[in-house]
Amino acid sequence: xxxxxxxxxxxxxxxxxxxxxxxxIALKEGKVLLLSNLRGDYxxxxxxxxxxxxxxEALKREVKEETGYEVxxxxxxxxxxxxx
Length: 84
Fold this sequence. Notes:
The strands form 3 sheets. A two-stranded antiparallel ribbon has the order 1-6. Strands 2-3 form a two-stranded antiparallel ribbon. The mean pLDDT is 84. By secondary structure, the chain is an alpha+beta fold. The two termini are 29 Å apart. The protein is 15% helix and 17% strand. It has one helix at residues 55-67; strands at 21-23, 27-28, 31-32, 35-36, 42-43, 46-48.
């Protein structure tokens, strides 16, 4: 292949936005709830927080939206993850 553009155009970001998001590990009768996408990737249910929500409220909402299941929090486990 040939390079079409020797020097790519660079853009400067003026602001960096961070959005807090979380995922939950849902267990029932020894089974773990995972979601899959069209690429075949699997993930735990979850997503981003709205400005007015607590972590627990956001996770309950996200699980309900993505799966239809209602869940309750029984513990908290986390690790920070930066970037995508």
